[in-house]
Amino acid sequence: MPQFILTYEGGSQPKTPEEGKAHMERYMQWIGSLDAVVAQQPLKGTEVLGDKDITTMMGYSIINAPDMDAAREIAKACPFLEMDNSAMQLSELAQMPG
Question: Which domains can be identified in the chain, with CATH numbers?
């Protein structure tokens, strides 16, 4: 089955601890519903090198999905996208020969 990487970019901090807890509960429920290879991998100590104006990647997930359309629907359901200033990049992982 093809594998896809979802990268989490940007995203605002919750306004209250209660909002943060509710968001995390929705996110963990979504993560639990995935056929995941790497369910979630937060990143820390990220540095952007070069002169590109990019959004910092906050973490990633690697999932199994039958095709790009199915992976897109899975990604669109992610609660991370409910946050202000958030984006997600979806890419199919290429299978390297060898």
Answer: 3-45+54-92 (3.30.70.1060)
